[in-house]
Design brief:
By secondary structure, this protein is an alpha+beta fold. The chain is 38% helix and 22% strand. The chain has 15 helices and 16 strands. The strands form 3 sheets. Strands 1-5-6-11-10-9-7-8 form an 8-stranded mixed β-sheet. A 5-stranded mixed β-sheet has the order 13-12-14-15-16, sandwiched between helices.
Length: 414
């Protein structure tokens, strides 16, 4: 019986892996230009990290985490990137270093959820985090990096921003929202009924059309912001205006994770049909403290790589495919094969992508194989050529060839 790939996962084959390498390098380069350094965290963490950090009323914690027990210890495959970075920030006392601390990461994540186009149970995420500043310029900087990266990838996406306030102003909003929803509470889905007391704002993010219909006309968080949150939101808008980054205010953005405060934003695109979020993030001023560290403000985003690549493909963005083999060395005869092995080593040392036949093919089959590798040049060595100290250099584009001294090969290739 054959063993197939688990549902919700996907092989990234060589025909596509170069696209991943391209966007990964683009992301690394842009993060470096903004002064961010890479951080890598484990693929699994203690389950309580996500329960405390993400929030036990979220769909992620309640329904979607891959959790397992080893030696009576509950562990969970990371469902998102931020919580692990915050844990590392605290555990390694990175808060004692210069502030702000700016990190980026590229990581696999895991959520048991209904599969959609561009959404797998194992997916991959780009993310950035800034710790240590409550200056709203940091929020604008995070948004600017996402905007720069998406534009560099040729993705047309519109920015939507909102403020979801702080614990102080959310208290009044929470009561107003509960008063609005209470008459129809028994008509909401079971999950939203559970959220009603713990975190009613999460009801606004429910995907159920029925719940969405009862949320129509609900009070807006923007109308309940305290003076500090109002000023902060105005500062973010002013900073985005200063950088020429267009945005739309969307009071419906609450984000799917409980740790957000003040700024919340999404980049959305219709390239995949229905409007789809490719990047989302915001500010989380209490998350570090909630997980056990010193009071440290933070802001960041997460960006799905699978969805990004689908949007690039839908938008007709051509990712440059790397060229094939530079030099293929074809050998005939036992002595020639030994010389070919030494030659490919020399070629690789000089920076050429060099390859050699490993199947014991005849010359004609080797040339055909070199063609399939899209080799630029083919060097042919036989026992006769060895005796004369020469080789045959074939231009695979023009099919022309010439016999040259072996010691002149490198200069001829150059």
């Amino acid at each position: 019986m054959s063993i197939n790939i688990p549902k919700g996962t996907k092989d990234i084959l060589p025909a596509d892996s170069y696209k991943w390498q391209w966007v990964e390098q683009k992301f690394r380069d842009i993060c470096a230009s903004f002064g961010f350094s890479e951080i890598r965290t484990p693929v699994f963490e203690h389950t309580e990290l996500f329960a405390r950090g993400i929030g036990d009323t979220t769909d992620v914690v309640q329904k979607e985490m891959y959790t397992f027990t080893i030696s009576d210890r509950s562990l969970t495959l990371k469902p998102e990137g931020t919580a692990g970075v915050v844990r590392s920030f605290i555990e390694n006392k990175l808060y004692t270093g210069p502030m702000p601390a700016k990190y980026y990461y590229i990581t696999p994540c895991f959520r048991y959820e209904k599969m959609q186009k561009g959404r797998q149970r194992e997916f991959h995420q780009f993310g950035i985090e800034i710790f240590g500043t409550d200056n709203m310029m940091a929020d604008a900087e995070v948004i600017a990096l996402a905007d720069t990266f998406l534009k560099a990838c040729g993705v047309e996406a519109s920015l939507r921003i909102n403020s979801i306030g702080c614990p102080n102003c959310r208290t009044k909003y929470r009561k107003a929202l509960q008063d609005f929803l209470r008459p129809n509470l028994d008509k909401l889905c079971d999950t939203c009924q559970e959220r009603f007391e713990k975190n009613p704002m999460r009801i606004l993010d429910c995907k159920s059309p029925i719940c969405q219909s009862y949320c129509a006309g609900a009070p807006r968080m923007l109308d309940f912001l305290c003076d500090d949150c109002k000023d902060a939101f105005e500062e973010v808008k002013s900073d985005l205006d200063a950088m020429g980054i267009a945005y739309e205010i969307d009071p419906g953005i609450v984000r799917g994770l409980d740790y957000y405060t003040k700024t919340a934003f999404e980049f959305v695109s219709d390239k995949l049909g229905a409007q789809s979020t490719v990047c989302g993030g915001g500010r989380y001023d209490h998350l570090v403290e909630e997980i056990g560290g010193p009071a440290t403000p933070g802001v960041g985003f997460g960006l799905g790589i699978e969805r990004l690549l689908l949007m690039m493909d839908a938008g007709g963005v051509e990712i440059p495919k790397p060229s094939g083999c530079d030099v293929f060395v074809a050998a005939l005869g036992a002595a020639a094969q030994k010389r070919a092995l030494a030659l490919v080593k020399e070629l690789r040392k000089e920076g050429y992508r060099a390859d050699i036949d490993l199947m014991g093919r005849g010359l004609k089959a080797q040339m055909k194989y070199a063609d399939r590798l899209e080799a630029r040049w083919c060097v042919v060595i036989g026992d006769n050529e060895l005796e004369k100290g020469v080789c045959v250099l074939r231009d695979m584009r023009s099919s022309s060839q010439s016999e040259i001294p072996m010691d002149a090969l490198m200069s001829n290739l150059k």
